[in-house]
Amino acid sequence: MTICTAGRTSARQAATATPGRDSPTRIRSRSREPNILFDTPGSITVDTQLPLLEMHTSLKVDGGPDQQLFFGQYAVNFGIVVESTGRDIDDVTISHINAQRFNYDGIQLCAKPNAGQGTCDGTISDVLIEDSGGHDNGSHGVFVYGTDIDGVEIDRTNAFGNSAYQLDVASSLNAVGSIKNLTINNSEGSLGGISAILVSAGTIDGVTFSGVSGFFHQNGIEFVGNDISNVTMSNTETLDNTNHAILFRNFTNSSTTGSVSNVTINSATLHNQETPRTPQKGILFQEGTVSGITLNDVTLGDMITGLEVQTNVLSGLTVDGMTGRTVNETIMLNPTTSAANLIIRNSEISSIDGLGSGAISISHPLFGTPMIDSLVITGNTIEQSDDGAIRIITQKLNALLIQNNTIRKGTGDDGAVILDINGDGSNNLIKGNEISGNAGPGIFLCCNASQPGSVRVTDNKTFGNDGLGIDLSPVGVNNNDAGDTHAGINGLLNFPEIVNEAGGQVSGTSCASCKIDLYLSDKDASGDGEGKQLVASTIAGANGDWSVSVCNFSFPANPALTATATLNDGTSEFGPNFSLTAVIHCASGTPSASPTPTLGPSQNLQGDLNCDSNVDGLDAILALAIASGIQQSPIQGCPAVGSGSPKFGDVDCKGSVDSQDALAILAYAGGTSPVDQQQPCTDVGAVLPS
């Protein structure tokens, strides 16, 4: 060992000092850049205590390029120890040191040791531990211990087989100490006792992990603090940890106190190869307030629960790209007071063997979360959930969006999407999802009849489910009532009834001024729905009558239609199926709002500006072009648009061809409403006088 120092203790004095088991040699230095270099080739077996390095500033310990290996053979308490009696520790570098088989810690930093209390009562700052490790020791592999710790970096340091923690950075003051600006890069803890990596202090602020792994422990990576903030983890990997892969908790293990905020986890792989399946939780947050959490690209092995949040208040959570299988909930959020600003998107999750309790669950475990505000669940694929692919239980639900998800093959009979709203709520939308092949209803909405919430349901593809496509509590078809006075979720709004189809126009009755969504029916056994594909939409009149064209839809053989009504942000169940017993006849075999009249020589239809015996969108484009001053080449055998008297194309007879004429033609072609003109102007679609 080469020791270079300056100050009161000479190199010769230090080198000739006799170490003792209970009175280790203390090497003191006030030099700015002392260097302690262990340059003995091979390994060193230590049968007495190594020199205890007592320095408070500017210390560098280097084991050489090949990494010095120390064996304690369990006859010595510590490997490398940096202590500072009565002083804080500042500016320390430990490189290329590997300490194995010591009774306690392989590498330890302790500021102001207090033997009576077993604590370290000083601060630690500006520490670098690199290319080092501690293996098979009786307590920690690497242990950094002081009251307040600021600016510790651990790089390329691996620890395994230690009985307690592999890498441990902790405040000796527990709930009132602090850790700031901690960085751990490309390091690993494995094959040990409690946690692979522990960060513990009352306040934890500013932690960056990159390329960190934790294998075969109770917990892979554990944060313990009453105020944890500004944590970033990337390229994290865990394997077969029996409790949790990544854990954030306070000192009382309570979900009612403490806070964690501004945590980002990018590219985490949480493996599991054990049977029975462990860990219990992939990622667990257990604090009184949880906010500003972002999880990107998280891959789960087979485990009990992927993400769980136990808290009073949850505000700001984004899960983007979670993939894997779980026994119970993949994402379980249990706020006891409120939840807001939550996004779950672009994830592919399923239950193991269809035994899960629900893929995405948001609820207090006993009585539901009192308030959920602004929740987006979009772009996910969820399969084989046992108790609801999406289950939300709350007393008040506002601004929910469930959109563009694929939910299929669920095994639970309660429903694929379950919203249990025990109070009021508004601005909630379920749109554009495929919900198919589930054991229960596609969408089940319930429950409080005295303070019902409201949910709009539109443009979903629900088919092949054993229950109804949309089921408003109570379970099963809720028949229409006179005056629509039933109370319940969505007001138990009466569903529309289809009464006729003629010439491509489907008509029916519903609540006054309701929005009507007409669907291709999956011919559910109940006779009502499900809605397999949206065909068309319209608005009912003040008397509840409605009519809409279906000429633009390509029907399969032997089709049936069903419909829903929406009023005041609430949607009905699907109405009775209406079978289309004959081929739908539209004008000239092309989409039109009404059958084609019989034309005589030199006759045209009002609005047929290209003289193809059909009023459609092409005619509207011609009118709009003329209105915009764009001249069109004449069509052979057809009058020029804007020529003649009255002007050809002036469908509203107001003296010019303008955008209003184009809109009138487009309205007729789309079948959104009949276009009747004031006489003597010819109706759009009717035969013009010759």
Give an account of the 3D structure.
By secondary structure, the chain is mainly beta. 4% of the residues lie in helices and 44% in strands. It has 3 helices and 54 strands. The strands form 4 sheets. The chain has a 44-stranded mixed sheet that branches. Strands 49, 50, 52, 53 and 54 form a 5-stranded antiparallel sheet that branches. A 3-stranded antiparallel sheet has the order 47-48-51, with no helix packed on it. The longest helix has 12 residues, at 659-670.
**Number of helix segments?**
3
- Total strands: the figure is 54
**Any idea what the radius of gyration is?**
36 Å
Q: What is the beta-strand fraction?
A: 35-45%
Summary keywords:
mainly beta, 3 helices, disordered N terminus, five-stranded antiparallel sheet, 690 residues, 44-stranded mixed sheet
In short:
With 690 residues, the protein is mainly beta.
Strand and helix map with partners:
Blueprint lengths: L1 E3 L6 H6 L18 E3 L5 E3 L7 E2 L2 E6 L5 E4 L8 E5 L4 E7 L1 E4 L6 E5 L1 E2 L4 E2 L3 E7 L2 E3 L6 E5 L1 E8 L2 E3 L4 E7 L6 E8 L2 E3 L4 E6 L2 E8 L2 E3 L3 E6 L2 E13 L4 E6 L9 E13 L9 E6 L2 E12 L4 E22 L4 E15 L2 E4 L8 E3 L8 E8 L2 E3 L6 E5 L2 E7 L2 E3 L8 E5 L3 E2 L2 E3 L2 E3 L6 E5 L8 E3 L2 E3 L6 E3 L24 E6 L2 E5 L5 E7 L9 E9 L5 E5 L10 E8 L2 E2 L6 E2 L37 H11 L31 H12 L20
Parallel strand pairs: 2-5, 3-6, 4-7, 5-8, 6-9, 7-10, 8-13, 9-14, 10-15, 13-16, 14-17, 15-18, 16-19, 17-20, 18-21, 19-22, 20-23, 21-24, 22-25, 23-25, 24-26, 25-27, 26-28, 27-29, 28-30, 29-30, 30-31, 30-32, 31-33, 31-34, 32-35, 33-36, 34-37, 35-38, 36-39, 37-40, 37-41, 38-42, 39-43, 41-44, ...
Antiparallel strand pairs: 1-2, 11-12, 47-48, 48-51, 49-50, 49-52, 52-53, 52-54
